[in-house]
């Protein structure tokens, strides 16, 4: 493993249940000189690869990387990969090897998608890369929420002049961001792929006492992470879930939902409060599966892929499934 037990890799286990974390290696470039506030452009010509920070306004920088080509005449959407909690852009460059370690690979989601359309990923504030390298994106107050992160993503795509429309691909906590973005900016959204995305229906599948255990587990996760990085990204599901229930609906675009189908109860149990019921991992897993079914039903006509042979990190463990889902959505959206 590449991180200490208290570091990012320890949080990688599916039990992070909607709070997943992974990463890989990408160098930070120079700061972008474009001011924030421009309208999102359309593409006239293919663009060069980029990997750098951009000024999004308010004295803040955010890191973005893009590769591949698209043009307005081709009418092919740009794919925007939205990482999970604490994970940086490089998580989409990695696959799980036979030992379970995450390693950079040409068969990972980011390079594979870049072979057929423009693809971008980014570092939110408080995220970490391979080797526990902290992001250059300017820190912000924590915990965060999907509405704030949607505003940041829109400001970043605008500052970097990344042409829409977008197929938004959200893993774990990236799922709520992708959904809120699609509902807030429907004219910029061409499709949606949710990769074991956080589901607000988890709360209704648990009793109040069971949900309280989940929230306390999340607090312990946050405490472990802040012990390593003071400015690390933190989540509060009790605040996130109401935002999702109240979010504008996703427009009628192609949607694919991929759900993890394997679970490590021992790894999950290690993250629980000491007084959690002995059977809580099994209780949680049943609720997680049901919450993914409810999530998929939110989108009429959505394809729900449940046989993924993966835990929470589907994009690392079964990257070709994610690539194929993205390709299908891009094609259905007019690519």
UniProtKB/TrEMBL annotation:
Residues 79-325 form the AB hydrolase-1 domain. It holds the Pfam family Abhydrolase_6. Residues 135-144 have a biased composition (Polar residues). InterPro entries: AB_hydrolase_1, AB_hydrolase_fold, AB_hydrolase_sf. Residues 1-27 form the signal peptide. Residues 127-148 are annotated as: Disordered. It comes from the Bacteria. The keyword Signal applies. One of its GO terms (molecular function) is hydrolase activity. Keywords: Hydrolase, Signal. This is Alpha/beta hydrolase.
């Amino acid at each position: 493993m590449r991180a200490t037990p208290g570091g990012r890799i320890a949080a990688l286990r599916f039990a992070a249940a909607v709070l997943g974390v992974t990463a890989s290696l990408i160098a930070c470039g120079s700061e972008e000189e474009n001011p924030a506030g421009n309208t999102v452009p359309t593409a006239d010509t293919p663009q060069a690869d980029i990997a750098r920070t951009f000024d999004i306004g308010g004295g803040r920088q955010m890191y973005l990387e893009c590769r591949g080509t698209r043009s307005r005449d081709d009418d092919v959407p740009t794919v925007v990969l939205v990482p999970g909690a604490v994970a940086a852009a490089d998580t989409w460059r990695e696959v799980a090897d036979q030992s379970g370690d995450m390693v950079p690979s040409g068969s990972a989601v980011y390079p594979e998608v870049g072979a057929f359309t423009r693809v971008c990923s980014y570092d939110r504030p408080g995220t970490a890369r391979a080797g526990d390298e902290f992001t250059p994106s300017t820190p912000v107050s924590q915990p965060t929420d999907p509405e704030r992160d949607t505003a940041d993503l829109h400001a970043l795509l605008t500052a970097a002049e990344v042409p829409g429309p977008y197929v938004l691909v959200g893993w774990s906590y990236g799922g709520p961001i992708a959904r809120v973005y699609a509902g807030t900016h429907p004219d910029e959204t061409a499709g949606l792929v949710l990769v074991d995305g956080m589901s607000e229906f988890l709360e209704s599948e648990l009793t109040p006492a069971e949900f309280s255990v989940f929230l306390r587990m999340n607090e312990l996760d946050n405490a472990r992470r802040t012990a390593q990085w003071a400015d690390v990204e933190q989540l509060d599901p009790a605040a996130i879930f109401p935002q999702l229930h109240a979010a504008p609906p996703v427009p009628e675009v192609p949607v694919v939902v991929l759900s993890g189908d394997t679970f490590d109860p021992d790894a999950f149990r290690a993250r629980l409060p000491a007084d959690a019921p002995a059977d809580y991992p099994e209780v949680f897993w049943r609720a997680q599966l049901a919450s993914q079914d409810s999530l998929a039903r939110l989108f009429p006509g959505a394809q729900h892929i449940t046989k993924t042979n993966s835990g929470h990190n589907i994009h690392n463990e079964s990257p070709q499934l994610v690539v194929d889902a993205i390709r299908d959505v891009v094609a259905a959206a007019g690519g």
